[in-house]
Write a sequence for this structure.
């Protein structure tokens, strides 16, 4: 598997500026966001739309769902040299997910 370039500190700052609802997680190696929906059906529909986006981007989120809440974490497992980090793949997925809202 080819290594993906990790975002620089400046690129990470720009990602967070462009997507202020996302927060750094895992010591700066991931970003996370919580989405609150009206009910389970709406949350499930949102997850289905994200799943289709993820397949199209070939970049799949880690997520957790309880009733109307969906927590999404984005990281690139083959980025950087220390077992993962943020990459342009995460930037593109955050942008695509935000466009659903």
């Amino acid at each position: 598997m080819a290594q993906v370039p990790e975002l620089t500190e400046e690129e990470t700052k720009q990602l967070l500026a462009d997507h202020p609802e996302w927060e750094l997680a895992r010591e700066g190696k991931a970003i996370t966001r919580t989405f609150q929906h009206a009910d389970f059906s709406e949350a499930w529909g949102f997850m289905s739309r994200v799943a289709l986006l993820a397949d199209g981007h070939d970049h799949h989120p880690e997520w957790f769902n309880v009733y109307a809440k969906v927590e999404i974490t984005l990281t690139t497992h083959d980025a950087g040299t220390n077992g993962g980090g943020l990459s342009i793949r995460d930037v593109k997925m955050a942008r695509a997910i935000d466009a659903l809202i």
